[in-house]
Amino acid sequence: MTIELCILFFAVALVYSAAGFGGGSSYLAILALWGIDFQLMKSTALLCNVAVVAGGVYHFYKSGHLPMKKALLLSFVSVPLAFAGSYLPLKQETFFLLLGIALTLAAVFMCYRLFFERNQETETLREGNGVLYGVIGGAIGLLSGMTGIGGGIYLAPVLRLGKYDTAKNVAGLSSFFILVNSIAGLMGQAAKNAILFEPAFAGPLLLAVIIGGQIGARLSARVLKPRWVAGATAVLILYAGVRMLVK
C-alpha cells in the first residue's frame, strides 16, 4: 500500500509543483479513498505541501516570479486565519463534510484552469484592489487550516480572473501562499497537540513528494504539459469529494 501511495504522491508533486501548487487537495483525496485516519490525513497533507512548495518558492523567487509585496499582502490575513482554522476542534463527521465540499470546489477550479484559462506571455493586468484580495486570501486561509488544503488551488483562479498578475507570477504567489498557510496550519495543530506523524507511513510519502517536487519545480510549463494527468486528478478529487458528501 505504501509503495502505491508513494507513486501517486510522486506523480502529484511532479505535476503540480511546476504550476506552483503543493497538491494538498490531491493528497487528501487519495488518503481519503485509502481510508486513512482523518487526523493523520490532515497532518500528512500539510507536511507534504510544505515539502513540495518550499523548493517551488525558492525557484520562483530566484527566477523573478514572486512579487513579495503582493505575496505578503495576500498572506497577511490568511496566515492567522489558517492557524485559527487548524486550531478549531472539529469532529470527524464535520471534517469530512468540509473536506468533501472543499474537494468538490477544488475539482471545479481545476477544470476551469484546464479548459478555460489561457496562458499568454503578454497580458493586460488590472490595478487590483489589494484589500479585497487580502480578504479573499483570509477566507481561503481559514478553509485551508480547517481542511489541510494549502489553498493555492482556490487562490490562483481568482487572481487569474482578476488579472492580478501574470500567469508565472500567479504561480509564484500561489506557491508562497500554500507554504505559509500550510506552516500556519501545522502550528495550529501543534498548539492543540493534534499533529499525528507516523514516520513509517509519512516518511516515504514525504521523500516521494520532495523528489517529485524538485523535478517539477525545475521544469517549465513548455517542457511539462501534463494536462491529461491533471484532468485525471480532477476526476479523482471530484469523486472523493462527492463520495464524502454522499456519506
UniProtKB/TrEMBL annotation:
**Annotated transmembrane regions:** 44-61, 73-90, 96-115, 131-157, 169-188, 195-216, 228-246
Does the keyword Transferase feature in the UniProt annotation? no
Please tell me where this protein is predominantly located: membrane
Top-level division of the source organism's lineage: Bacteria
Can you name this protein? Probable membrane transporter protein
* Record's keyword terms, sorted: Cell membrane, Membrane, Transmembrane, Transmembrane helix
| InterPro entries (alphabetical) | TM_pro_TauE-like, TSUP/Inactive_protease-like
Membrane disposition: Multi-pass membrane protein
- Location in or out of the cell: Cell membrane; Membrane
Q: Name one GO cellular component term.
A: plasma membrane
Member of which family? Belongs to the 4-toluene sulfonate uptake permease (TSUP) (TC 2.A.102) family.
Supply the source organism for this entry: Chitinophaga oryzae
